[in-house]
UniProtKB/TrEMBL annotation, chains A, B:
<dbReference type="GO" id="GO:0005829">
    <property type="term" value="C:cytosol"/>
</dbReference>
<dbReference type="InterPro" id="IPR055438">
    <property type="entry name" value="AstE_AspA_cat"/>
</dbReference>
<keyword id="KW-0378">Hydrolase</keyword>
<feature type="binding site">
    <location>
        <position position="19"/>
    </location>
    <ligand>
        <name>Zn(2+)</name>
    </ligand>
</feature>
<keyword id="KW-0479">Metal-binding</keyword>
<dbReference type="InterPro" id="IPR016708">
    <property type="entry name" value="Aspartoacylase"/>
</dbReference>
<dbReference type="InterPro" id="IPR007036">
    <property type="entry name" value="Aste_AspA_hybrid_dom"/>
</dbReference>
<feature type="domain" description="AstE/AspA barrel-sandwich hybrid">
    <location>
        <begin position="215"/>
        <end position="296"/>
    </location>
</feature>
<keyword id="KW-0862">Zinc</keyword>
<dbReference type="GO" id="GO:0046872">
    <property type="term" value="F:metal ion binding"/>
</dbReference>
<feature type="active site" description="Proton donor/acceptor">
    <location>
        <position position="174"/>
    </location>
</feature>
<dbReference type="Pfam" id="PF04952">
    <property type="entry name" value="AstE_AspA_hybrid"/>
</dbReference>
<feature type="binding site">
    <location>
        <position position="113"/>
    </location>
    <ligand>
        <name>Zn(2+)</name>
    </ligand>
</feature>
<dbReference type="GO" id="GO:0016788">
    <property type="term" value="F:hydrolase activity, acting on ester bonds"/>
</dbReference>
<keyword id="KW-1003">Cell membrane</keyword>
<feature type="domain" description="Succinylglutamate desuccinylase/Aspartoacylase catalytic">
    <location>
        <begin position="10"/>
        <end position="195"/>
    </location>
</feature>
<keyword id="KW-0963">Cytoplasm</keyword>
Amino acid sequence: MEHVSLPPLSRVAICGGTHGNEMSGVYLVREMQKQKVDQAGSVSITTVLSNPRAVDACRRYTDTDLNRCFTKGLLSAPITDSTPYELKRAQELNSQLGPKGSKEAVDLLCDVHNTTANMGLCLIFYSIDWITLHIYKYIQSKMTSTPVRVIQLDIPISEAYSLESVGKHGFAIEVGPQPNGVLRADIFNMVKEAVDLTIEWLQGFNSGSTFEGGEVEAYNLVKSVDYPRDPTSNEITAAIHPQLQDNDFKLLRPGDPMFQSFSGEMVEYEGEELYPFFVNECAYYEKKIAFHLAKKITLTFPPISVKKD
Amino acid sequence: MEHVSLPPLSRVAICGGTHGNEMSGVYLVREMQKQKVDQAGSVSITTVLSNPRAVDACRRYTDTDLNRCFTKGLLSAPITDSTPYELKRAQELNSQLGPKGSKEAVDLLCDVHNTTANMGLCLIFYSIDWITLHIYKYIQSKMTSTPVRVIQLDIPISEAYSLESVGKHGFAIEVGPQPNGVLRADIFNMVKEAVDLTIEWLQGFNSGSTFEGGEVEAYNLVKSVDYPRDPTSNEITAAIHPQLQDNDFKLLRPGDPMFQSFSGEMVEYEGEELYPFFVNECAYYEKKIAFHLAKKITLTFPPISVKKD
């Protein structure tokens, strides 16, 4: 692919606590604020605790899931007395870090999340973005403590609902397994390393380095699978099968064990061969998702460097 | 030790959801209720969802920690408009399954809990109880899927604050690691096996079997250790060190890594050699406990059988 020149990426936002019980981002942002990290060479850094009310309560959210509030529609919805706290907070964050889709928006928004699923470290992003792919490639080449993967969601940016969509470029860093409300040092260290590498890459890019093109494997969301449920009570009647539990990104084949009912029966997977992820994520019980399924794709990206004035 | 005869144990209560986000007990009790399990040979079984309001909210508790409400004092406190929900519920449970200390109390109360700590399966009980030790020995001899240990707290029964103290005999089954709000099939299977083995032992005891005496190793609580905290904000400034994380019941020696501060420094353990447990338990952040420390003791128990009429 042909060489691409892009404008400098001088303003980055590092966000944590978008979900108030995902502790890596909460403590990373607090530590950066304590250390007064606001500049790294050519890169100015804004650190944001996205949902302080939920952080105080150590809950995912207080009224509604903040990380579903960043669609164009919701960001321009009028505020009334009955507007949920998180929607008001989304509009505040959009003013501070966006506005989404404008030239005032931060160049890169990186939002730190945790999952209870055994996913290692993943970058999650919407439509294909060369900056994100280059940063991903860089992080993957430097980190050895955990598998590093990339997940791509085919959602148009206007319908993109999560905080990172407010930046000109953006991705979520999703790291697990870590229980909600718990801080593990190993996971904290991974997140910190990924954020430090991101900032390091931005400095290299701004300083005129050329980054070679290449290709990466990515996981492309196909669909979600719910738990078996009792049709009247709607309560789940089975758990993720022990053979699927903790096996995120391991190919699921027809006939493989998928659920184990509370009375002991096994439920097999039926359907095409796909890769499960977010397997048994705590917050997805209420969203009626036992796990997501992805196909593996190859993404090709061009060599890039900064556009000279 | 000399042979001991004890009255039959004909009434057992199996409780879950005392903490509303510890899912193994919630789903075990619901499944037993669905299957209408209320009798197993000579044993009548009462299944109780202890804190239904917290279960609905998928939180540990709504007003106050239910499992700290079962002291003699709190159980006889007058109820007013400002009485926390959980204290009212504790008094209801005491009426249903106790009253604590009376001859009307259930013969055995078994309360199912989860922890985010890597503790395997533990039986936790107050002052030394031969029935509990025999059941522990039986479970340990039969279960191969996980380590089975016993933890003993030196608290007089009148000051004992947890639900199992309401029964004539009682223990908590504590199983982990499992995140709050998540149900893992492997952990569910362990809990179910331990409860089934408990009921099996009771049937054997009631039918006149003699159980040999012997000795077991137990962990006896010595003290608790808090996280390092910022003296002004009171926020934690370090996480459990990766070398201590997940190493519950592995002897902690002076000089061993204990915490890792967010700026990267290691904090060493100082003090006598002891065994850590409940390492990085989610619910203990607010109780200012990073982990407990225990000494290992040997408990000897006599052969027992049921007292004939």
